[in-house]
Amino acid sequence: MSILPAEGVAFEFTVPVLIIGAGAAGLTAALAAQEAGAGVLVLERDAVPRGSTALSAGLIPAPGTRWQQAAGEADDPARFAADIMAKAGQEPEPALVDLVTRHIGPALEWLADRHGLDFSVITDFRYPGHSACRMHGLPSRSGEELVDRLRQAAESAGIDMLCEAHVTDLFADGGGRIHGVALRRPDGSEERVGCGALVLACNGYGGNPDLVARHVPSLSTALYFGHPGNQGDALLWGEALGAATRHLSGHQGHGSVAHPVGILITWATITQGGIQVNLEGRRFSDESHGYSEQAAAVLRQPEGVAWSIFDERIAGIARQFEDFRQAEAAGVVLTASSIAELAEATHLPLPALQATLEHVGELKALGRPDEFGRDFAGAAQLVPPFRAVRVTGALFHTQGGLVVNDEARVARPDGSVLPNLFAAGGAACGVSGSRPEGYLSGNGLLTAVALGRIAGLAAGGPAPA
């Protein structure tokens, strides 16, 4: 991945707006740029657009939407911004948090009205750190459906997309203006495509072991549950161009990936009163803090695994998610009619497991916090039939990246911007700060869609004077 001099380079053709990456960020940017009046070409390294979006639950947090209002859910951008800042210990850039929390609601309503994406808001539970029900998803509650619907919207809008096109190099002049890119096709042939503006929507560096070891050493040996194409191209290109970066250690982990089959198990299994125990049958943390920071906690346990334990009531809530339905179909969600049967099914020591579940039951009955600080007040008791899934911790995607301004333009350390370079989603620094516990559920798709639309409108609009 290099920055090559643009002088004297001949391009096969040139487009006004070129977008690298066809996930939620890139496809949203493409729809917005075309709406701004620009010709658009999206380059995607895979045969079919999937990316990290397809691996997610496809849930996008947004405040003050018409879906919230219909559900009687009071919310607004300031409240959402306060939740983001509180979860991340006030680390994120306030201006960026304000930007995305103001723009995400209108972006979802635009996708619904202009492109037919039928969002609805989840109202039967809240993810940790959210003070309102603001998670919006499509009917299947899956990232696969989200990226498929965005792709269909782009195709219906007549947006050009070139798949199996791996961008290897950018061509730039001495002032940092991007003139085009070099891309490689599966047969080894290469093409050069010129552009008026370039949007980096190719996510972060979670699939690059060297960069992960450098910036997130605690997860350097963890299962990577993101897209293998997330090699840090945007970060490396940006650094070579002199761009500012921020919070490169920030990331989203997840402490609930079914092991060894690799299916995401919704965190509703925990937030609704479930627990996690290690192979000794004992709890080891406050699971309610969030799934991102729980990844490292699970990995510190014997064999790097844990069992998520819940019941049929919670499983009923979890079944609204396609991933959970797939996990049940795959046979990884075990069922037990008693604690003894649960211990036998999971091969956990019965005395320790029974003591753990009885202690949790007492805490719920008394409404007391436990020794880890988890508050069980108001949580329903777990009752047979029990459910259990063997899980491990995983790295999903990185949250640090290139610093952008209020038009999603890539900035230099002095605050000036590179002439025609934009970044969205995982390519840009997000709003989670530098630590895993700073990740508020949905932060990844929040910046993908909000910054994607902002970048597309700015890249597709008139060039700045």
Automatic annotation (TrEMBL):
Instruction: Tell me the superkingdom of the source.
Output: Bacteria
Q: What GO biological process terms does the UniProt entry carry, in alphabetical order?
A: steroid metabolic process
InterPro entries for this protein: FAD-dep_OxRdtase_2_FAD-bd (IPR003953), FAD-oxidoreductase_2 (IPR050315), FAD/NAD-bd_sf (IPR036188), Succ_DH/fumarate_Rdtase_cat_sf (IPR027477)
GO MF annotation terms: oxidoreductase activity
Residues forming the FAD-dependent oxidoreductase 2 FAD-binding domain are 17-436
Q: Which UniProt keywords apply?
A: FAD, Flavoprotein, Oxidoreductase
Q: Which cofactor does it need?
A: FAD
PANTHER family named among the record's database cross-references: 3-OXOSTEROID 1-DEHYDROGENASE, FUMARATE REDUCTASE
- Identify this protein by name: FAD-dependent oxidoreductase
